[in-house]
Amino acid sequence: METSQIFAIAVFVLVMAVIISEKVHRAAVALAGGIILIVSGVISFDQGIEAIDFATMGVLLGMMLFVAVVKESGLFEYMAIKAAKIAKGDPWRIMVAFMIVTAVFSAFLDNVTTVLLVGPMTITICRMIKTNPVPFLLTEILASNIGGTATLIGDPPNIMIGTAAHLSFIDFILYDTPVIIVVMVAMVIFFRFVYKNKLSASADAQSEVLSLDENKFIKDAKLFKKSVIMIILVVAAFICHSFLGVESCEVALAAGIIMVIIGRTNVEEAIHNVEWPTLLFFIGLFVVVGALDKTGVIGMMANGIIQVTGGNVILTMLVILWVSALLSAILDNIPFVATMIPLILTMEANGIDAAPLWWALSLGACLGGNGTLIGASANVVLSGISSKHGYPITFISFLKIGMPMMLISVVIATAYLLLRFAL
Fold this sequence. Notes:
mainly alpha
């Protein structure tokens, strides 16, 4: 190996190690790694800029702006209360309702935003029915990662994969959504056995939930109506963008800008609510992974996988699915996917049919995030909210629930991919 390749690998490993340690903010670590590689001459500044996937950045920025405005309407709180009332205050029904609400929101918004909005409302309702909110929050974490797998915009890894592989919103609906529906059904059955005799609430507590008026949680009625209409239009635009010849990043950015304008929101406040650390993390990460690609490390890895699997597409697909799932359980799935994308592109250039590989990567990386407490950003965020309110979720307590569900979901994904591509 050349010196530049060894140095690029060393920087990548160091960046990943520090990110896992959580001693330094991951945005600062990723940016530092990118700067080191540019200053050291491993890649040039221009090559570093070329490595940044601005289409992915556009989708993230646009949706962050969109959500920053919509959440001011009270739409998410309204939906949570409505779901609890439909469940008639019954703890098990509330759990299922909140799982579904979280999964659906996560399919069209980013996971972190979804859990930030649903989590506190869950704790409030659980206090009303005098039951421990931790089981509810655990199911919502898992539902956010599962639901986010279903669409192009549901989870950052899917945005990255869709952009790199030129996959449309419809492609994800056709390939990922069917198996995610099965996984959600399996999840409900799984938690029915886990929590069957552990959820209860008095008649008075249930009545208190039923007495809530969801309309009082609407902060801005006009913005609420505009938000509902815009969400419908945005989903329709994402579904049709490939037919219209418009990129998904253009849809997202247009949606964000239009929402800021029609929402009559303070522009500075909307911009302030964008998760800039996340965007900066992506920029640094793209440069670090770009260095691996430019120095030929990614090509070596791709050739290694081809040699191990003998170029067999189905075997390669299964290897990528399970490796993605297991590694995403212990690593943040975003840097892992950023590393895998150029690897699959290289395999595609070598004559491998990449279509099954992209879906294996999507399902493995997104579902694998449920394996441990640090597997995905939503896990860390919602566990932090839970602890802040006096209901700690430990690494082990999450592992006991998350890992079995993750393995079940990946087994289902394995069967699905084999049915879809091997038969």
